[in-house]
Design goal:
The chain is an alpha+beta fold. 42% of the residues lie in helices and 28% in strands. It contains nine helices and 13 strands. The N and C termini lie far apart (66 Å).
């Protein structure tokens, strides 16, 4: 009898330890959908200890969730496993995560319980979306560049013909050839901008904050709206290799877009931080530098957020849609990436540059 009790205790201890060693987050609910167990991975995922949430209804720890209570009840009644590949959880504390889960029936003390196995997928979704957007951006950029080259050659011929004709016409008719030449020059300038930067970056070692301070000074001098600039720098960032002019141009393009949509009480924050374990253009880097430009403007229309960095895409009626495309190209030449998160009241552009290990 003593051996049986010892064996049961051993199995219980072993099961508990095994549960806590699992990478998969495990949640156990009773037949009233109240939390009875969280393993260590689930406590980390929900940022809550079992002591805090024990015996609470699962849905009470969320402000909003796409996890359907009816489906969980159906698991209990029909004893059928359910799987959902994308469940959003908005916690009372304000943060959000997306998970994939499987819910199935287990028996404990002869009562039905629901075993939920879940895994956070935000990072994978973000990486997948970034890879897709990068491929789309490269395709759109190459298409525009191809068209720009096709347009530029006939434009040169048109301008040359107009110049020759200009010499043959009487003075009172030369205004027409002047108009053709002026418009040809304007279109040539636009085509040149569509082609993007035509120089490789001049990579040298610099302090990144010196460049950002120069950008801050330039933006402050042309600040007719009185926009407040906040600087939040991480002084631990070491000197790194980049092209000062290209990085400056990318930042000015981003800040220029922000200042055009901000009101008189607008605010722009320039922020730098060290970031660990970043995936940049499908390559893993242990260390990277994040430069964020954050404004409190109206936000970017949701309809163009996925194509924001494409050439000729703009949220303004009089915008050319080239500033952010050029910025993306400049950062891409540095093996970095430029991303954007936007909602009304907060838009954040983030430049992530790899920080190679110094030898």
């Amino acid at each position: 009898m003593q051996n049986n009790i010892s064996l049961k205790q051993h199995k219980a201890n072993f099961s508990e330890q095994l549960l806590d060693q699992m990478v998969t987050s495990v949640v156990v609910l009773d037949n009233a959908l109240k939390i009875k167990c969280l393993n260590s991975a689930a406590e980390a995922l929900f940022n809550k200890s079992l002591n805090r949430v024990y015996n609470l209804p699962l849905v009470d720890i969320f402000v909003e969730t796409s996890l359907n209570e009816k489906r969980l009840i159906q698991v209990l009644t029909d004893s059928q496993e359910i799987t959902d590949s994308e469940v959003s959880l908005h916690f009372i504390e304000g943060y959000r995560i997306t998970i994939e889960l499987t819910a199935s029936i287990i028996f404990y003390n002869d009562e039905k319980h629901i075993l939920i196995e879940c895994r956070q997928i935000d990072k994978q979704k973000q990486i997948s979306a970034e890879v897709h957007q990068e491929h789309q951006w490269i395709a759109a950029r190459d298409l525009i560049r191809g068209l720009a080259h096709e347009i530029k050659n006939p434009l040169g011929g048109l301008r040359g013909a107009a110049q020759l004709l200009h010499k043959e016409l009487p003075e009172q008719q030369q205004e027409f050839t002047n108009m053709i030449i002026e418009q040809s020059d304007r279109l040539t300038n636009l085509v040149d901008r569509l082609l993007g930067p035509n120089q490789l970056p001049n990579i040298e070692r610099h302090n990144i904050h010196e460049v950002i301070e120069k950008v801050y000074q330039l933006a402050s001098m042309d600040n007719q709206k009185g926009i407040a600039f906040i600087r939040d720098y991480d002084p631990s960032i070491p000197d790194m290799e980049f092209d000062t002019e290209q990085l400056q141009q990318a930042l000015l393009n981003i800040i220029g877009n922000a200042t055009q949509v901000l009101d008189m009480d607008g605010q722009i924050t320039l922020k730098t931080r060290i970031a660990n374990n970043q995936i940049i253009n499908s390559k893993a880097w242990r260390l990277a530098v994040k430069i964020s430009v954050i404004d409190n403007g109206p936000g970017i229309p949701e309809a163009i957020q996925d194509t924001l960095f494409y050439p000729m895409v703009s949220g303004r009626a009089n915008g050319t849609g080239l500033g952010l495309s050029i910025a993306q190209t400049l950062i891409h030449q540095h093996q970095g990436k430029l991303t954007c998160e936007s909602r009304p009241g907060r838009t954040k552009f983030t430049i992530i540059l790899p920080l190679p290990k110094r030898t």
